[in-house]
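Quick one from the shared queue. A colleague (R.T.) flagged Glycerol dehydrogenase as missing a structural entry in our internal table.

Convert sequence to structure tokens.
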Amino acid sequence: MDLSSRDSAIKFGMGRYRQASGLLEQLGDELSRFGNKALVIAGERSWGAVRDRLVPVFEESKIETSLVIWKGACCAEGARELSDRAAEIDAKQIIGIGGGKIIDLAKATAELGGVGATLIPTNVAQCAPGACTSVMYTPDGAKDVTWRYGHEVNGCYIDLDVIAQCPPRYLAAGIVDAMAKKIEILNGRPDLELVSTDIDLYTAYNLACYTYDVLDSRWQQAIEDNRAGRVTKALEDVVFAAVPVTGVISNTTRGYNQTQIAHVIYDGVRTLFTEEAKQSLHGEIVAVGLFCQLYFNGLEKEEDGLKNMLRSMEMPLTLSDLGIDPKEENLEALERYIAGSRHFNSEDPIARKRLHCAMLEMI
């Protein structure tokens, strides 16, 4: 089974999507439609955040569950182990409860087991719940490959009360990761024109512009509300833009070209500096990579605005903030990683020089 190849069909999102305050208690009918036996994969803290509210739902809906608290990486080995566990209990669905790692692992496990994935995110630090892909790692946490699926997940259910109680760091990371799509799709250009751009990418770009504008206008209030533990319209707006809408952006391009250099920097950091940046979130690494991406796009004048936003969010601004020494050999290693990726794809020495200069924007 080759899960890394590109599928020509577009899957726009999730089979079912709901977000609301008090949603966990309403999930009995939603979960029952996908089968009465489930392997539940959860992060330790995530399970603690939902256990008391969700266990009664399982019981009242007569859904038999087997719980696995997963502490390892989202890796092929883990997905195989868990799919075997699911087969042993004749699971009809895989329920993933947690952040991006658990969500991607649940999708991978479901794919190997030939059943559907049902997702209950406990933070919105990235758009993983809406993407028909899983970013896979080695057991040690280095970036491996991306698995791509020929179908959507069963459904995704976000309880806004859970999100409001999550540390604001996760919301901030998700906001920046979603806003990055507009900047990354340009990848070396200051703008896109329909006559010279594939319609799927052009559509994704315009959706990304819309998402960027929504998040740009709402992030400050949403972060403030999150810090206060309040569910508000601002929080609701930001979650909707950052997860399902950003998932549609990713899926419209079939998981290609909506992420570029800033996300390659993320991959490079996870691969080359696995231990140094172990405590950094996906969106935090992408945020630092955006300084490089903006310069490469010829939009360096927008870097000051990005810095101001990240400071207000208390997010990292430099490689040093991620725990990476910005010494010359580290910058060179990361630059080589980018230049060797499909996202750079240029033999032009001028473009390579621009990339070299762009790297310095992260120090």
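Residues 125 and 193 are 31 Å apart (CA to CA).
The beta strands are 17-20, 37-42, 64-69, 93-98, 116-121, 133-137, 143-148, 155-159.
Added to the table.
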